[in-house]
Design brief:
- The longest helix is centred in the N-terminal third of the chain and has 22 residues.
- This protein has five helices and eight strands, in the order H-E-H-E-E-E-H-E-E-E-H-E-H.
- It is α/β, with parallel strands linked by helices.
- 33% of the residues lie in helices and 20% in strands.
- The strands form two sheets. The protein has a five-stranded mixed beta sheet with strand order 2-8-7-4-5. Strands 1-3-6 form a three-stranded mixed beta sheet, with no helix packed on it.
- The radius of gyration is 20 Å and the shape is globular.
- It is a lipid-anchor; GPI-anchor.
- Pfam families: Cu_bind_like (PF02298).
- Belongs to the early nodulin-like (ENODL) family.
- Keywords: Cell membrane, Disulfide bond, Glycoprotein, GPI-anchor, Lipoprotein, Membrane, Signal, Transmembrane, Transmembrane helix.
């Protein structure tokens, strides 16, 4: 009976610790740029569509953003190149139609279309990645998710955080 109680306690401790890590925003998330619109030239009245979309989201280090597009490209560039809608030497370039970019540091990231006319018509975006301390707390104790079904990307839990949960769970078993 004692071993069953120890097992139940360790499972409950594991779940509690894992939940704490989730609510602490330690999961990486993937965001679909432009949601259902994808990465496409916005209408003339929505020239700021992508910056408005980015401003509505809270990005943190190691989140990813996915660009889906047809016959175009996406470039990560400097602030000056963003302003000019041109880059001879982009930080990053992709034209495969389904580009995933990892936001690997806090600060601003600048993206433009590789087609100059598209960029000038509004196909560009500034993404601001917040420091962990700057992230707002989850609303009502829940995690918001960009996934259609609302589920966080559990595969994105960093191995060091997951290892810490395991170690603390084992410690809890030894203490019971």
């Amino acid at each position: 009976m004692a071993s069953l109680l120890n097992g139940v306690c360790s499972v409950l401790l594991f779940i509690a610790l894992f939940t704490c890590f989730q609510s602490g925003n330690l999961l990486s998330m993937e965001f679909q740029v432009g949601e259902d619109n994808g990465w496409a030239v916005p209408s003339s009245k929505d020239r700021h569509y992508y910056n408005e979309w980015a401003a509505k989201n809270r990005f943190k280090v190691n989140d990813t953003i996915r660009f889906k597009y047809k016959k175009d490209s996406v470039l990560a560039v400097s602030e000056d190149e963003y302003s000019q809608c041109h880059s001879a030497h982009p930080i990053f370039f992709s034209n495969n139609g389904d580009t995933v970019y990892t936001l690997d540091r806090p600060g601003s990231f600048y993206f433009i279309s590789g087609v100059a006319e598209h960029c000038q018509r509004g196909l560009k975006m500034i993404t601001k990645v917040l420091e962990l301390e700057m992230l707002p707390p989850p609303q009502n104790g829940t995690i918001t998710s960009p996934h259609k079904n609302g589920a966080p990307d559990l595969a994105a839990v960093s191995s060091s955080n997951f290892a810490m949960v395991i170690v603390l769970s084992l410690f809890g078993v030894l203490m019971v």
